[in-house]
Amino acid sequence: MNSCLVIGGGIVGLATALKLGxxxxxxxxxxxxxxxxxxxxxxxxxxxxxxxxxxxRPGSLKARMAVEGIREMVAFCRRHEVPHEICGKxxxxxxxxxxxxxxxxxxxxxxxxxTGLRRVGPEEMKRIEPHAAGLAAAxxxxxxxxxxxxxxxxxxxxxxxxxxxxETGAKVLRLSRxxxxxxxxxxATPRGEYRGxxxxxxxxxxxxxxxxLAGAGREVRxxxxxxxxxELAPEARHLCRHLIxxxxxxxxxxxxxxxxxxxxxxVEAGPNAVLAFAREGYRxxxxxxxxxxxxxxxxxxxxxxxxxxxxxxxxxxxxFSRERFCRSLQRLVPEVRxxxxxxxxAGVRAQAMTPQxxxxxxxxxxxxxxxxxxxxxxxxxxxxxxxxxxHVAAMIEG
Length: 398
Hints:
- By secondary structure, the protein is α+β, with helices and mostly antiparallel strands.
- The protein has helices at residues 11-23, 61-80, 99-111, 122-128, 148-161, 207-213, 289-296, 299-307, 309-320, 322-330, 381-397; strands at residues 3-7, 28-32, 49-50, 84-85, 89-93, 118-120, 136-140, 144-146, 165-167, 174-178, 184-189, 192-196, 198-201, 221-232, 243-246, 258-261, 267-270, 274-275, 341-353, 364-368, 371-376.
- It folds into three domains: 3-44 and 149-220 and 361-397, FAD/NAD(P)-binding domain (3-Layer(bba) Sandwich), CATH 3.50.50; 89-141, no CATH class; 222-359, D-Amino Acid Oxidase, Chain A, domain 2 (2-Layer Sandwich), CATH 3.30.9.
- The strands form four sheets. Strands 5, 6, 7, 14, 15, 16, 17, 18 and 19 form a nine-stranded mixed sheet that branches. Strands 9-2-1-13-21-20 form a six-stranded mixed sheet. A three-stranded antiparallel sheet has the order 3-8-4, with helices on one face.
- A hairpin with a 2-residue loop joins strand 20 (364-368) and strand 21.
- It is globular.
């Protein structure tokens, strides 16, 4: 490879550019980012957790990338003095029906190569998190928290130091191939045209649209889900020492509110998950008519909603009711009260969905001639970004 265009300057695109630079040191690398700075969306609108691979099916790309990725990410943070902490996590079972799922999580984590996992009872839970309540929990010592804004900035600086180019304000409007099938990719942007022998699409919330511009089609569609957070008031922050998570529903592993101590101080509680009316809609009132029509016009979304009406309604109600949100949190920490919750930030999850209404659970890479499209990379993509980048670089070399 002598040149490459990486479309999308989020954490995955930056990590991919880094790994491509390592594997192809003489190649001309250009990252095209539509925003004024890198890492504007999913990369920094999240809970700042370092995920180590507990939840994911053994052998899946998510599992492999998470386990490799957290170790690479921690090493990167140490090397660049990025604030982070491996503080550990409790995944708490609060009902009898969750106990078999908790044991399955422990089995998966062990199969994925995690170390130090153990099942703890109520007394040991209280020692680790004095205010948590439940029948049993999985202690996950390898998980942690990090400043992903600082990670993105460090990655961008390293790319530039190695001779790579990051163009901001460079939204890709058109993609074409010059010279036939073996010709260069040409990306037209408001800042001019950029060329590369290879094209790597890491456009996150807009990856399906970029794929369509490149001729890859759009059978799998990005459906945006907004996740809303509260922050605990200062007098309630003692209720969470580290990370407290529920046992996830296997059908919706990204659902389930949790408590996260943040690297900059304070404690977040959330998120819920509701359909966003804009792919970059961080507030309920944010509406983009094109994005909304795109979601509502997709048969897969309606099939999903018909299959899961109760879940969809429960998440919507929780979005508008602090009391209902608080009741979900009280399953994990009974002492939290509605008056402890102040509105926090929000993120939008770029969730790929099939025409049949199924959520794409694993990372999804689509290979085309001299092009790779990452068409599903929600959590734990931030943690796994360096491993994903290495995987992309290996695919191109192969």
